[in-house]
Design goal:
single chain; 209 residues; alpha+beta; Jann2411-like fold; two-stranded antiparallel sheet; binds zinc ion
């Protein structure tokens, strides 16, 4: 019997808007030196994947049991996941600032992409055919495949230009700005946006006294 997964609670509304951006947001605080890691164990990665809808309960439970049997491999997958996440973050963060994307990060994404795409297959069903993943229930890195695919798709689409990094000074979350005038500045108005507003208010009231 696998350990029960604690629900993932750091990003209730999945504010990134795409799987790859939500994955980049599995860290708190401001990168590069004031961050708080949210994925400290393989089970944390499973809990996030369940929360993000990349695995269902049965798959997550199965992988939790697999990870108990293969702890070294699970630790390796977690390390790969973190390296992939940071590459995704740097790619889209550079892109949001209209800077050149680091070649080493693109190489990390492409290595992960070739692994993921090798698992992609076409499944036949009652209504025709659909994309699916082959044997996700035994592969400890199965949740990374849709993340990688999402990053490649976003990077090659026009939506790439709408990816922003939160303007909060204690946050480096990424999000897709789908607001009408493309003026969204914060990952979450209730959180980072409110903090910024409160700070401006405080600064103004101090200036008046
Ligand atoms: Zn934020």
């Amino acid at each position: 019997m696998a350990a029960k997964l604690e629900p993932y609670q750091h990003d209730p509304y999945l504010s990134g808007g795409r799987d790859c951006l939500n994955f980049a947001n599995t860290i708190g605080g401001r990168r590069p030196d004031r961050q708080r890691e949210y994925l400290n164990t393989y089970n944390d990665l499973l809990a996030w994947s369940l929360h993000a809808g990349l695995l269902d309960e049965t798959q997550a439970d199965h992988l939790a049991r697999e990870a108990e049997r293969r702890p070294m491999e699970a630790a390796q997958v977690l390390a790969e996941a973190i390296s992939l996440r940071e590459a995704i973050y740097r790619i889209f963060s550079a892109n949001a600032r209209a800077e050149a994307v680091p070649a080493a990060d693109l190489a990390v994404l492409n290595t992960a992409l070739s692994k993921a795409l090798a698992r992609l297959q076409v499944k036949s069903g009652p209504d025709g055919f659909s994309w699916s993943w082959s044997t996700p229930e035994t592969a400890l890195d199965a949740m990374l495949w849709p993340v990688v695919r999402s990053a490649a798709e976003l990077l090659t689409s026009v939506e790439r230009e709408q990816v922003r990094e939160c303007a909060g000074d204690t946050c480096s979350w990424l999000f897709l700005d789908t607001s009408r005038n493309h003026t969204r500045r914060w990952c979450d108005m209730k959180d980072c946006g409110n903090r910024a507003k409160a700070r401006r208010h405080y600064a103004r009231s101090r200036a008046r006294t």
